[in-house]
UniProtKB/TrEMBL annotation:
One of its GO terms (molecular function) is tRNA pseudouridine(55) synthase activity. Its EC number is 5.4.99.25. It catalyses: uridine(55) in tRNA = pseudouridine(55) in tRNA. It holds the Pfam family TruB_C. It comes from Streptomyces humicola. This is tRNA pseudouridine synthase B. Residues 30-186 form the Pseudouridine synthase II N-terminal domain.
Length: 299
């Protein structure tokens, strides 16, 4: 019987609606799961929709590792306007005509933002500067700079370019799909694309369609979860997200007691999900100097 105040161990893949913060979604799931032990992997801005991975009970230990996986976004970038937040929720700070931009110029600018790049994050973000969230410093009128960070944009594809007009100024709306590493700011890509083209740019729409192996097609709306809380068992979630290693009963016992084993040599650069007999999820480990190092235990 489940203890009072605890929920099922596993992941919930949510299709987050616009207008809610990631913390709002976590609060809803705490009520539905009947536990305070709920968290999320990778924040989505209130404006954004799509895949938000929620961990319940023991699965919260997976979240820090899941947050490091690759992600896919569908977005609309408006060229011709810059905003204080680099998205449509912020005040417009500059406007410049964008109707003259050719597809060739657009493709060339996107190519500069593809691959391994250095990106300055958006200032209106949760990044800390001297212990303070940068978005709070922006709203307080503080002047500061964020350091560029290495990120990988493995794919940056244009699907459609549409002309728009506002206050007599011709703008361009560009629909794109971006595959990228953890830590990539799509708002910053929009900002930098507009800056390179000399017109400014910001996001008007953002939808995350994939976090690691978890896709929006498998996600549930909050309304659906209110009717039936669909929790992916923790073992199934770990097997889908990480390289799998099956061990025998003695190895499982040793790992459960924190003993380092000889590394399996699976060639995995990331965490390895270890399973014992009867498909029991034991631990997340990594290979380190020929041995296993336990990242999180689940036995």
């Amino acid at each position: 019987m489940r203890r009072k105040g605890t929920g099922p161990d596993g992941l919930v893949i949510v299709d987050k609606p616009a207008g809610l913060t990631s913390h709002n979604v976590v609060s809803r799931l705490r009520r539905l799961a009947g536990t305070r032990r709920v968290g999320h992997a990778g924040t989505l801005d209130p404006m954004a929709t799509g895949v938000l991975v929620i961990g319940v009970e023991k699965a919260t230990r997976l979240l820090g590792h899941l947050a490091l996986t690759a992600k896919t976004y569908e977005a609309t970038i408006r060229l011709g306007q810059s905003t204080v937040t680099d998205d449509a929720e912020g005040e417009v700070t500059a406007t410049a005509p964008a109707g003259h931009i050719t597809r060739e110029a657009l493709d060339a600018a996107i190519a500069k933002l593809t691959g391994d790049i250095l990106q300055v994050p958006s200032k209106v973000s949760a990044i800390k500067v001297d212990g303070q969230r940068s978005h709070r410093l922006v709203r307080a009128g503080e002047e500061f700079e964020l350091a560029a960070r290495p990120v990988t944009v493995s794919s940056f594809v244009v699907h459609d370019v549409r002309r728009a007009e506002q206050d007599g100024i011709e703008l361009l709306d560009v629909d794109v799909t971006v595959d990228c590493s953890s830590g990539t700011y799509i708002r910053a890509l929009a900002r930098d694309l507009g800056a390179d083209l000399g017109t400014g740019g910001h996001l008007t729409a953002l939808r995350r369609t994939r976090v690691g192996p978890y896709r929006v097609e498998d996600a549930h709306t909050l309304e659906q979860l209110e009717e039936s809380l669909d929790v992916m068992p923790i073992g199934e979630a770990a097997s889908a997200a990480f390289t799998r290693w099956d061990v025998d009963a003695e190895q499982a016992r040793l790992l459960a007691n924190g003993v380092r084993l000889k590394a399996p040599g699976l060639g995995s650069a990331g965490p390895i999900a270890v399973f014992g007999p009867e498909d029991r999820f034991i631990a997340l480990v990594e290979e380190c100097r020929g041995e296993t190092r336990i990242l999180a235990g689940f036995a």
